[in-house]
Request: fold
Amino acid sequence: MTTKTQARVALVTGGTAGLGLALTRALAADGWHVITNGRHEGRIKEADFPDNVRALVGDVTDDVHRGALVNAVWERGRLDLLVHNASTLGPLPMRPLGEATIADLQEVWRTNIGAPLLLTGELLPWLRAGESTILSISSDAAVNHYETWGLYGASKAALDHVTLTFAAETGVTAYAVDPGDMRTQMHQDAFPGEDISDRPLPETVVPHLLRLLERRPQSGRYRAGDF
Ligand SMILES: NC(=O)c1ccc[n+]([C@@H]2O[C@H](COP(=O)([O-])OP(=O)(O)OC[C@H]3O[C@@H](n4cnc5c(N)ncnc54)[C@H](OP(=O)(O)O)[C@@H]3O)[C@@H](O)[C@H]2O)c1
Reply:
């Protein structure tokens, strides 16, 4: 049964750690109803979310799980914000493009482009032109070229393209946003053994994302730090 709600509704993929967790907490604290997910149930339990967060265990690349996310939106009866945040660097340690296998490509493409593309398509009936927002978390690696970051960077460039094509096709405002370096597990995985304590915590990036959402510039690619 659909529960028509006054509260704004966000779906944030990968909301159990790092930037997704920080954003989920901030939106929930601001009164949003947040639907989120992650593959590990333990992280969801650890997050100890408030009642206005619905966290589902599952993988964004899984069709049945995406169906459950879409159903959770349907139950709320609206979708104001769709955040594509869940992402993978691909096989670790990261390696040069010449060493990429088809399995590596499939993993990175399915997670970083396939899932956001299909999930957006599945949620189009709920995304209102001029009102709802699609926010895809990109990277500076989408536009810069770093050794060993090729697979991930190309996938983020494609994510930007997919995100902004949805904006062109539907009139739904969409952003591809580079959050900048953050002290998270993903960042540590990219720099194994390195001290990353000088990188800002993801909680410091959230206010920039919220300002972007509030100001609602035209659809495009942005850096979080510019807001
Ligand atoms: N950290 C940085 O310096 C940095 C820089 C530029 C861009 N970014 C981008 O910022 C975003 C957030 O990164 P982060 O550093 O916060 O990552 P993170 O700390 O590794 O957190 C990733 C979150 O996504 C979930 N997740 C990963 N794969 C998933 C899947 N297939 N299905 C469902 N959930 C999944 C993880 O939970 P489970 O593992 O339990 O599934 C976790 O909750 C990503 O898009 C990343 O590419 C990060």
Remarks:
- Residues 13-14, 16-20, 37-40, 43, 59-61, 85-88, 111, 137, 139, 179, 181-182, 184-187, 202 surround NAP (CB under 6 Å).
- The first helix runs from residue 18 to 29.
- Residues 14 and 38 are 5 Å apart (CA to CA).
